[in-house]
Design brief:
The protein is an all-alpha fold. The chain is built from two helices and no strands. The protein folds into two domains: about 50 residues; about 80 residues, no CATH class. Helix 1 packs antiparallel against helix 2. The model has no long low-confidence stretch (mean pLDDT about 85).
Length: about 160
């Protein structure tokens, strides 16, 4: 081989090495970019999972709170109903009872003739059913209000930016 051929071969070999090195350097750069992007996505997913976990815990705490309050209200209503049934307590009814046989406009009969106002058994049961429904509705409204305040208002973000 001649000297010129040796130099030409050395230059071709150097060019191939340089081209291979440059190509490997580009690949390394691309792999590093992909790694950094994957790390950023991983960190974002971790943050999203953390926030989701916190919000689920908040929702569970609110649900537990309102369930306990509802149970307490329903228990109080049952206690009141049992006390009324045992005649330990009376339901106050704002009503008047005309005396037996009294005609409107003919004068008042004696107090001894007047009966005490009292709910019928059906009306009494309806009263307690309404109280239960009121307690359920109240807790539903309070729970929805807490949900809106907790989950529908902007939350501060602390995530990293790319």
């Amino acid at each position: 081989m001649t000297f010129f051929t040796q130099i030409l071969l050395a230059l071709v070999l150097a060019g191939a090495v340089f081209w291979t090195f440059d190509d490997m350097n580009d690949q390394l750069h691309q792999v590093r970019l992909e790694r950094d992007q994957a790390s950023y996505e991983r960190d974002g997913l971790r943050e999203a999972a953390r926030i989701t976990g916190e919000r689920l815990a908040q929702a569970a705490a609110l649900d537990s709170k309102h369930t306990q309050e509802l149970t307490h209200a329903l228990n109080q209503n049952q206690d009141l109903q049992r006390a009324v049934d045992r005649l330990d307590q009376r339901l106050r009814v704002h009503a008047s009872c005309p005396a037996a046989g009294e005609q409107p406009g003919t004068g008042a009969a004696g107090l001894a003739d007047a009966g005490s106002p009292e709910l019928t058994a059906d009306a009494r049961q309806a009263y307690f059913t309404l109280r239960d429904q009121l307690a359920v509705s109240r807790q539903m409204i309070l729970g929805l209000q807490d949900h809106v305040r907790t989950f529908c208002t902007p939350q501060p973000t602390t995530g990293a930016t790319p």
